[in-house]
Design a protein that fits this description.
Elements lengths: L4 E2 L5 E5 L3 H23 L2 E5 L6 H7 L9 E5 L1 E3 L9 H8 L9 E2 L10 H12 L8 E4 L17 H5 L6 E4 L8 E4 L1 H4 L5 E6 L1 H12 L17 E6 L1
Parallel strand pairs: 2-11, 3-4, 3-7, 4-6, 7-10, 10-11
Antiparallel strand pairs: 1-2, 5-9, 8-9
Helix pairs in contact: 1-2
Length: about 240
C-alpha cells in the first residue's frame, strides 16, 4: 500500500490498493494491530464489521490471524430482519468467513436474538445486551453504498435522525424505503469513537460516491457516511 492521501479539511486518509487481494492484506494487518493493542491493554477487544460481499476476502484472511480470539467480541454493523438461516443475514456471513480457523473461538454477538417479535423490540433488547461489551470498539470496519449509506443508516429512512443523534441507543430499528427488508443498525454514536475506524470500498462507483460525499461534508442526512468525516477515518479502496 502506498502512503495515504489525506483529504484536506477532514479526518479522512485514503489508501489506494492495486487490487482486492492487496487491499485485504493491508486491511488485515491494520485490524490485527488494533486488536492486539486492545488485548494487551484491556484483556479483551471489540471488533465491529460490516456485511455484504466486499469484506469476504478480508474476513477470510483475518480468520487466520494469530490472535487470542477467545477474548475478541465481534458485532455486525447492521442486520436484515430476515430468518436466521437466510443467506442475506450478515451474522451468517460473518460465521461463514470470519469465525473459521483460528478465529473460530471469537464471540459473535448478533443484533437479533432468538424470539424477538419485531425489529423495534429486537433493537431495544440488543441495545441492553450489547451494552455489556467493551465499548468503544477497538476497530470498526465500515462499508458504504453508492447512495452514501453506511451500516443501515440509509438516506431518507424515517429513523435516520435518531440513528445519527449523539444520544441514540446502541441499536436502532430502521425502515429504509430503498430496501426490501427492515433493518437493525448500530447507531452513529455506537460506531463512533473506536480506536480505529476503517472504511472498505471497492470499485469506481464507490470511489465516485466517496468523492461526492466529501464534496459537501455537512449534509449528513443526504449521505450518512459523512458523520464519520470529522473524526480519524481510514479509507481502504481498490478498483
Amino acid at each position: 500500500m502506498k502512503t495515504p492521501e489525506v483529504i484536506p479539511g477532514t479526518g479522512v486518509a485514503l489508501y489506494r490498493g492495486e487490487d482486492s487481494r492487496t487491499l485485504a492484506e493491508a486491511l488485515t494487518v491494520r485490524v490485527v494491530d488494533q486488536l492486539r493493542q486492545a488485548l494487551t491493554q484491556h484483556g479483551e477487544a471489540l471488533l465491529v464489521v460490516s456485511g455484504g460481499r466486499t469484506p469476504e476476502a478480508f474476513l477470510r484472511r483475518l480468520s487466520a490471524a494469530d490472535l487470542d480470539w477467545a477474548r475478541v467480541h465481534v458485532v455486525p454493523t447492521d442486520e436484515r430482519w430476515v430468518a436466521k438461516d437466510d443467506p442475506a443475514r450478515n451474522s451468517r456471513m460473518i460465521r461463514q468467513f470470519l469465525l473459521q480457523h483460528r478465529a473460530a473461538e471469537a464471540q459473535l454477538h448478533e443484533l437479533v436474538s432468538d424470539g424477538q417479535a419485531d425489529p423495534v423490540a429486537a433493537a431495544t433488547e440488543a441495545s441492553t445486551r450489547l451494552r455489556e461489551l467493551p465499548w468503544p470498539a477497538a476497530v470498526v470496519v465500515l462499508g458504504m453504498g453508492e447512495d452514501g449509506h453506511t451500516a443501515s443508516l440509509f438516506p431518507g429512512a424515517p429513523e435516520l435522525q435518531q440513528g445519527l443523534a449523539k444520544d441514540a441507543p446502541l441499536v436502532i430499528a430502521m425502515t429504509p424505503s430503498s430496501q426490501d427488508t427492515r433493518r437493525l443498525s448500530l447507531s452513529a454514536s455506537a460506531l463512533s469513537g473506536a480506536n480505529a475506524t476503517l472504511l472498505l470500498l471497492q470499485g469506481e462507483g464507490k470511489r465516485k460516491a466517496l468523492e461526492l460525499a466529501l464534496a459537501q461534508p455537512q449534509a449528513l442526512s443526504e449521505r450518512p457516511i459523512r458523520v464519520f468525516f470529522q473524526q480519524p477515518l481510514e479509507v481502504f479502496w481498490c478498483p
